[in-house]
Amino acid sequence: MTQASLLPAEIAGFVFELLRFSDKVTATHVCKRWRDVALAHERLWSRIRCQSVCILEPLLERARHVPVDVQVSGISVENLQEILHAISRHLYHIRLLVLEGAPLLVDHEHIPMVYDCLTQPAPLLEALDIRIFEDPLLIDALALTNELNAMRVAPVGLFAEEAPRLAKVSFRAMALPRRHHPASAFSRVTKMELETTFLSAADLEAIVSLPSLKSLHLEIIDIISLPEAPPPPSFHLEELWILGPYDVPYFIPPCPLLWYLGFPHIKHFISNDDEVWLETMTSSPRGLPHTLLIEHWSLDERRGRTTATEAWRLIDGGGFVSDLLDVQTGDQFSWPPAKNVFANLKELVIPYSQLRQADCDLRLPFLTRLCIRVSDNDRRFLSQAGGVLLYAPCPNLRTLELWGGAIPGLLSMPGTVNLVRNDLSLDRRHPPELLIWNPCDASIPIEWDAFVDVVSGIRYLNEPPPDPFVVELRSSWRTSVED
Description:
Elements: H1 9-17, H2 21-27, H3 32-40, E1 47-50, H4 53-62, E2 68-75, H5 80-89, E3 94-101, H6 111-117, E4 127-131, H7 146-151, E5 168-172, E6 191-195, E7 198-199, H8 201-208, E8 215-219, E9 222-223, E10 239-243, H9 256-261, E11 268-272, H10 277-281, E12 291-297, E13 309-315, E14 321-327, H11 329-332, H12 336-344, E15 347-351, H13 352-357, E16 369-373, H14 379-382, E17 392-394, E18 399-403, H15 414-423, E19 424-426, E20 433-437, E21 457-461, H16 469-475
Parallel strand pairs: 1-2, 2-3, 3-4, 4-5, 5-6, 6-8, 7-9, 8-10, 10-11, 11-14, 12-15, 15-16, 16-18, 17-19, 18-20, 20-21
Antiparallel strand pairs: 12-13, 13-14
Helix pairs in contact: 4-5
Domain F-box: 1-48
InterPro entries: F-box-like_dom_sf, F-box_dom
Protein name: F-box domain-containing protein
């Protein structure tokens, strides 16, 4: 018997709580004592991540009546019914539920099976994320019969109308119960994500009838019709994310759907690129932003797009935040609306790769803080003496920051020197301070000759730079169980 095996059960159980979920399962097979301790310690099984239907039921049993977070992936037509049966039996003590499909997603004909699983009361359920069905935006619209459309609508009485803590719901290909049947189970939902092909008046009536809804994420192809009556006075979105086909003109002028949902007074608005997006997002009640964040936006491969794009976040003085996705930043620099935006900025965060691709002058007369995100992929270009094809006057710049300074010898690279000395036209009477985040060579003496007359000083910050805003943007809409 090992020394670890002699630990009192309470202490051993506490140690097991520190393990990753997969390691907890392994610990139950080390020896009989560890297995007995682990199985008797129900809190160990309060977070469950699994892919096998064979272990889902035993793991839920181990949790007994303790509130449990459950994430099941790899769901297919073959195992869907067994998984839903196990979930239904334990719905009364599930706090967070995530169902993810296998690479070959389940067709829409099986949506009613999920609704049948969710007929039991869910007094502890706080978040529900169902991602097992085919993406409705990829389905041939002609194949969507009236019968299939009816199947996606949730029945009245979901959760036996007892889900008092439910605040976050994500439905792919599924729809809310209709407005004329009050759905008390959704009365406290504050965050809702819906993906559907065609948005009908009945769908919108169901959405605006949610009394607590503040954040709405819609992915649609088109709108069939709007309700005849306006939304109730209590309906007020704080955040709207709307995505659709790239050839749908949402802003020429803003379409009736946006007006119906409360645009342009929604504080946080997110959408994909559009010809007049910038003009719309800087018009009253919004205004020209004082801060612009530009970050890489990874591709959504299920939509068949292969072009690398960026995401922009505009923050103005009125508290409005506008996020633009799938931007070709290099194409925007020379556009008059973009030039107006840059000319008003006080803060700018931008990847070095985008500065490198700029092919026009960039006037930044009021900019006081410039943060350039540098990645390891930029090493080859920074080591070259040519610099970028950019002339950017920044007469009021007070802080120049390089984010991601973990590239060895960053400050001594010709591209870095050229960027600071030549590409950015700085006020040498009042030079900015140069900050290097997360350096790997902070102990190396600084060659002041290259920077002495263009910056007031060089300072190292031994911490990673802030995460791109797109990290928070995505995570706020995705539910998952921590391992």
